[in-house]
Design brief:
The complex is a heterodimer of chains A (about 190) and B (about 280).
Chain A: H1 13-21, H2 33-37, H3 48-57, H4 60-67, H5 71-74, H6 80-84, H7 91-104, H8 113-129, H9 134-145, H10 154-160, H11 174-184
Helix pairs in contact in A: 8-9, 8-11
Chain B: E1 2-5, H1 9-12, H2 16-28, E2 32-35, H3 44-50, H4 52-68, E3 73-75, H5 79-94, H6 96-106, E4 115-117, H7 119-134, E5 142-145, H8 155-158, H9 168-175, E6 179-180, H10 199-215, E7 220-223, H11 226-234, H12 236-243, E8 251-253, H13 254-261, H14 266-269
Parallel strand pairs in B: 1-2, 1-3, 3-4, 5-6, 5-7, 7-8
The chains are: A mainly alpha (about 190), B alpha/beta (about 280).
Bound molecules: iron/sulfur cluster (SF4) (2 copies).
The site of one iron/sulfur cluster has 15 residues of chain A, from helix 6 and helix 7.
């Protein structure tokens, strides 16, 4: 994927980002536009431009902080940063990569527990039926997050407006979906 | 006339009002949307957050099925699904080796030639040309057109409209008699998929959008995405609590507004399914 591996082999997170998602952190000149426009920056431990600065240092301690950060899980892929970055640095794709890396190394930030639980419940629903089963998703998420009382009022209101199926919609070729999940799981 | 349609999961569930208005509108304009047979979920935010290959394989299955059934133009009313399908088509086109790998996962052929269109493009192409003769009740309201993220970004991939100040929805709304107002939050994010896991963040971000629209005197916020709709409408009670306000502005799908203008009833377009009362009829 990357064509720039002629220099000494680097083992930093920045090098991996470069290889896997073709994002060169070194190109960032810290103008701060990404952080200024990021809707969740104020809730993050490190705003996006700071993540890039930390990557640039190529210090193991900083790499570790990034993979353990709350920021990577709060990013909602709104793509505002990419659309404004003068260097066209694809931060959203980089965030996707960092989340997956954080998970494969078991470094998920504890504060992101519910966000991750939600994504997992979502995928579980697709894996079982091929489609999203909203009621099942909510119940499974509640079990995982142990947040049983949240949204108690929402469910009945959705039901009365015909916005919630009691039973899942299943696609016919569920075996195909199961196979896709199996082949793409690492 | 027939056109392929990928409704996506939310249109069959929490966004049934949107689904209803899309199909009613199609009927009124003699368009027959044909669902992609045995379509699956696109994977949404969860797949691309957790597993890149899966996030490409799920949309690719949908596109491969469309190809198999000869549906070469696909309407995708959900802006989030639209974005996932467009990004997948783009990625696989750009990286042939990735495309081979995904075909191998799917055990299906995939060429990637289908034309994927969002709801505004669909309206522009098939509804607008015949709209004038059909408008019975001009939609005489001031509206804040909210595009959100996924209709306009990433602009390099979607190549759809001006990224910071898009106009397409404004033009469509003006055509049915509305006055599209200037609005600072046109493309700001509503908090997207954090609605259940971080309701506080969604309340904060969605509240800012609503406040600006109300402050500028809009009668309604117009959307073209079920996720934006559920954050701004279904989450209204949380938003009002978070901001300690009593925001009352309704959130309407662009297809619902057009439906009313051509004489459909509020029930036909699904207003009875909204959480925030719509006093517009
Ligand atoms: S906008 Fe781009 S160049 Fe500016 S700080 Fe962010 S990543 Fe760096
Ligand atoms: S894509 Fe993520 S990092 Fe970029 S602006 Fe949006 S939330 Fe912030």
């Amino acid at each position: 994927m990357s064509h720039s591996d002629h220099h000494i082999e680097r083992n930093s997170l920045a090098a991996k980002v470069e290889k896997e998602v073709e994002v060169k952190a070194q190109k960032c000149y810290q103008c701060g536009k990404c952080s200024a426009g990021c809707p969740v920056a104020e809730d993050m431990d490190f705003p996006p431009s700071m993540v890039l600065r930390m990557l640039q240092t190529e210090l193991p301690a900083n790499d570790e902080k990034i993979l353990k950060s709350h920021s990577i899980w709060l990013c909602v892929t709104c793509e505002m940063c990419l659309s404004r970055c003068p260097m066209e640095i694809d931060i959203p794709s980089m965030m996707d990569f960092l989340r997956q890396k954080s998970r494969s190394e078991g470094k998920e930030n504890p504060k992101a527990k519910n966000i991750i639980a939600f994504h997992k419940s979502f995928l579980k629903s697709i894996k079982n039926t091929g489609r999203l089963y909203e009621l099942g998703l909510i119940l499974d998420y509640k079990r995982q997050s142990l947040n049983m009382t949240q949204d108690m009022a929402l469910g009945p209101k959705m039901l009365s407006r015909g916005k919630l199926h009691i039973f899942p919609e299943k696609i016919k070729d569920r075996a195909h979906i199961a196979k896709i999940f199996k082949k793409t799981s690492k | 006339m027939k056109i392929g349609i990928y409704p996506g999961c939310s249109l069959e569930g929490s966004a049934r009002d949107y689904n209803q208005s899309v199909f009613e509108l199609a009927k009124a304009f003699d368009i027959e949307p044909v669902q992609i047979p045995d379509w699956n979920c696109c994977g949404a935010t969860a797949a691309h957050n957790l597993n890149k290959e899966l996030s490409l394989a799920l949309p690719a299955r949908i596109l491969a099925l469309a190809e198999k059934h000869g549906l070469d133009e696909i309407l995708v009313p959900c802006a989030a699904c639209y974005s996932r399908l467009m990004v997948t088509q783009h990625e696989l086109q750009k990286h042939p080796e990735l495309k081979n790998r995904i075909c191998e996962v799917l055990e299906m052929d995939y060429k990637g030639n289908s034309k994927i269109i969002n709801v505004i493009e669909w309206i522009d192409k098939y509804i607008i040309p015949k709209l004038e003769e059909k408008v019975k009740k001009p939609f005489n309201y001031k509206v804040a057109n909210y595009y959100g993220c996924l209709l306009v970004r990433p602009n390099k991939v979607l190549n759809y409209d001006r990224v910071e100040d898009p106009q397409t929805m404004d033009i469509v709304m003006n055509k049915i008699g509305a006055t599209s107002i200037d609005f600072a939050y046109k493309t700001e994010c509503c908090g997207a998929g954090l609605s259940i896991s971080r309701t506080d963040i969604v309340s904060k971000l969605s509240g800012k959008i609503i406040e600006d629209a109300e402050h500028r005197g809009a009668d309604a916020i117009i959307v073209a995405c079920p996720m934006c709709h559920s954050n701004l409408d279904m989450r209204r009670a949380d938003i009002n609590k978070y901001w300690d306000k009593d925001f009352k502005i309704p959130v309407i799908f662009v297809t619902q507004a057009i439906g009313l203008a051509i004489g459909l009833t509020p029930e036909q377009v699904g207003f009875n399914r909204h959480f925030v009362d719509v006093k517009i009829s």
